[in-house]
Amino acid sequence: MESGLYKDYIEYNLENSARILARRFHDSLVFVIKPSKMIFYSFSIYKNFLPFTEDGIPFIGHMPGSGNDVEGLSHLVHLYNNAKHRLASDSTGLDSSSATITLVGFSKGCVVLNQMMFEMFSSCGTIKNDIKDFAQRLNSVYWLDSGHVGDRNAWLTDDAILSAMVHKGLEIHAHVTPYQVRDSQRKWIGKEEKKFVEKLKKLNGNVFEGRHFFDEPGSIDNHFKTLKVF
């Protein structure tokens, strides 16, 4: 970010984003996951969680073992468990045995959340114990101004997945700005977000929608500010 198109937004780089989230979740341990690749030093690619084209378009909805070697949920759980073990070995005195988990995705990072929900609630057969423990601890999920350069799947709209999320009792948060949901070149994002919220409400889900800066034109500035105002 420091040398790319968005160098003016260094206050939202990886380290500073961690600080912003730490202030938002002040009584929590915050882990920020770095993208596996950046295009033009600006656009994040998360091939460590799901497949992407070379142009940065994500493929959401595959199941591990279906011809693709990416196992996003398993990878996330391993990262989480390794972080816990490191904390324990550092003798910090922190007890994570009863800790709940909150997942937060921002912008294109939200496609990782979508894939995690798909894998978690579409799983067939036996679920590994470490993944089961992670799923049981998962308490809330935040989508912050989701969007990408493709033409679908910025927001989950699959009825079965949404129903499973509600059945689990997840706190579901959707925060949006005009930058994504009112983009005239990507009208599908706004339509998907509307379906996401409306379907969850019809299912009596614990869903909160935050709409920010709708008295202003969509801008990349306000897009990034979502990290501070959600």
TrEMBL record:
Name of this chain's protein:
UPF0565 protein C2orf69 homolog isoform X2
Q: Name one GO cellular component term.
A: mitochondrion
Looking up Pfam families in the UniProt record yields: C2orf69
- Superkingdom of origin: Eukaryota
What is this protein's gene name?
A: LOC111113249
Mind telling me which PANTHER family this protein's record contains?
MITOCHONDRIAL PROTEIN C2ORF69 (PTHR31296:SF1), UPF0565 PROTEIN C2ORF69 (PTHR31296)
Q: Which InterPro entries match?
A: C2orf69_mit
